Amino acid sequence: MLNINFYCPRWGSEDIPWARFCEEVKTAGFDGVEVYPLQSPNEKEEMLRQLALHNLEFSLLHAEMKEGKDFEKYKLALERNLYELVDYQDDQIKPQFITTQTGREYYTQDQMAECFAICDRISKESGIKIIQETHRNKWSYAAHVVKDYLKKFPSLELALDISHWVCVSESYLEDQQDAIDLAIQHTMHLHARVGHTEGPQVTDPRADENKEALEHHLKIWDKWIAHLKKNKISKCTITPEFGPYPYMPYKNNTTKPIASQWGINCFMKNLLKSRYTNN
User: Fold this and answer.
1) Residue 5, SS3?
2) Residue 164, SS3?
3) Element (H, E) at 21
4) What confidence tens digit (pLDDT) does each residue in 180-195 have?
5) Which of 24, 52, 166, 206 could form a disulfide with 92 if both were Cys (CB 3.0 to 4.6 A apart)?
């Protein structure tokens, strides 16, 4: 039997105290939290304490925001940040895994091989799995590119975010099913955000005008779940990952979001839980 744990993104709720956030996450029926903690290291102890208190799992996000063009500086930052993240644990709780947005889209395969080696070394040293997110701006920005990488680096594991590939391709990837199928075989975590052919996030997946985009994403996510069940995988994780502005547009001439980020992520969690738990 496949158990699916749903993680709530901290993204967009950074101003809410951890105690209240964890209470709301638990009440809403999530099993854990996905968080990018490097911008608020002063919250580390409170974050771990509240997650443990509320019996919530957690995964960590990594992205290097400053370095990029200077590859040697980037490698130093990657190593420093990953070591900082694997230290986010105490005697009660530790991250389930780290999702990293690694490198840049203009790095060569040889440069990315060096980055992957750093991730692999720190993962083995710490005992915490480090997986690669598919994301614009990074090595994994497009389906056809990742297909080539997976053939050359078959041990890579993915946090699959189809919304970026849809945006990059300006299509729903109907003609790249071989790349999708290969990516699914390497996917251990899913970012359930719905993109469209001109952007990485629809305004609201509940809206009729976004039904086509939602259905295309569901077809791919269905294939991943079917793959896990076929291979008798016992556990996986999904983060409904709709984000705040600028992913979420504002109403014209205001700073009010066009829809509720929290409401959408709860909707996606409930939709997928119903779809995959009962079938």
Assistant:
1) strand
2) helix
3) helix 18-27
4) 999 999 999 999 999 9
5) 52
